[in-house]
Structure prediction request, 297 residues.
Amino acid sequence: MSFLNALPGAIAQGIIWGLMAIGVYITYKLLDMADLTVDGSITTGAAVCAMLVIAGVNVWVAMLVAMVAGMLTGLLTGLFHTFMGIPPILAGILTQLILWSVNLKIMDSKANQGLSARTYDVLVTQLERGKSILLLLAVVGVIIALLYWFFGTEIGCGVRATGCNLQMSHAQGINTSFNKILGLVLSNGIVALSGALLAQYQGFADINMGRGAIVIGLAAVIIGDAIFGKITSNFALKLLAVIAGGVIYYIVYQLVIWLGLDTDLLKMLSALVVAVFLAVPYWKAKYFARPKKKEAK
Prediction:
């Protein structure tokens, strides 16, 4: 019964982190880039939203500002990569380090800022998990619908083409640098939005809340793709599969707690699961691929 009682909370957190994983999906799957900015931008979204709500700003406005702040973090990473020629993974690390100081300043040099639902008007909270799940599903539905529309436009197709074949896109006259920046801006805006929702749900923003976020995001993307990837090629359903991957991850997390296993090892296990799933395509190609038949002369 304790496990069943904890399921709504696991589902709510899974949806929030699944939304973050959609941001990871944009850079990892569509742009073919490893962006580590998310460990910092999710905290930026949480910090901005928390401080604005504490200051009396409407929660919807606070979430919008948090999303814009996340977009700016993606812009910084994009400029590091395209304008300064820094490899994307290192550009993300540099932005992440910068955001540590920025996030501390946003939170008035405090490592933690409380955002209790009993004191402030928030949208989602652990105190009303059922209502929170419905609202989170509505937010996710709107985000997926907007992304489905955007990536069907000419600009969105240019972003996808850049990630699919950089050289060919450049040869076709596509501004690949702009598309990379646009993808990073969009990705980290969504990640910051998930951070804003997470701060409201758990009742605080913390400077360390984004630590290991990239691993959770990759786990959600890979779990969703492994379970639902072969069922459909529809872009909107693939994004929905990422949300499902986040929910499955947190249900497993809750199961680990219920079984009494050491939760300190969960991030290590998550990293190992991600490593194994990333290695599967390589193993299949190297050890299980059928040799090509030689054509008869």
